[in-house]
User: Which sequence fits this backbone?
């Protein structure tokens, strides 16, 4: 299983390097091995990034969560393992969610590591 918190922390490092003025926070949803990165500027929500693991992207409610964030009129991104990219891309397009940005770990230069123990 992928260490999703490590993935999230790598991504937060990239965001903070790109724009140090952004306020970045995250929520780890451990039981599903996934997380959400929330980016704000002066308490105004700018973006929500769903960081999915090798298993969590398959959740039935995933699309509903992405759409809920999209309804907040913010930038919505979904980050998935490279192996899942084409499948998730197909699902997003099938459901007409072209406004959601899809990224893979590899495209971001993020290395996935297995969970310890």
Assistant:
């Amino acid at each position: 299983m992928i260490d999703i918190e490590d993935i999230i922390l790598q991504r937060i490092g990239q965001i903070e390097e790109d724009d140090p003025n952004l306020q970045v926070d995250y929520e780890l949803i451990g039981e599903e091995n996934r997380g959400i990165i929330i980016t704000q500027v002066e308490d105004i929500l700018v973006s929500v990034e769903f960081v999915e693991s090798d298993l969590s992207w398959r959740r039935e409610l995933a699309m509903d969560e992405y759409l809920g964030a999209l309804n907040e009129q913010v930038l919505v991104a979904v980050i998935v393992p490279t192996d899942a990219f084409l499948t998730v891309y197909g699902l997003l397009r099938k459901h007409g969610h072209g406004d959601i940005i899809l990224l893979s770990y590899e495209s971001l230069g993020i290395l996935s590591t297995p969970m310890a123990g």
Summary: The radius of gyration is 14 Å. Residues 7 and 112 are 6 Å apart (CA to CA).
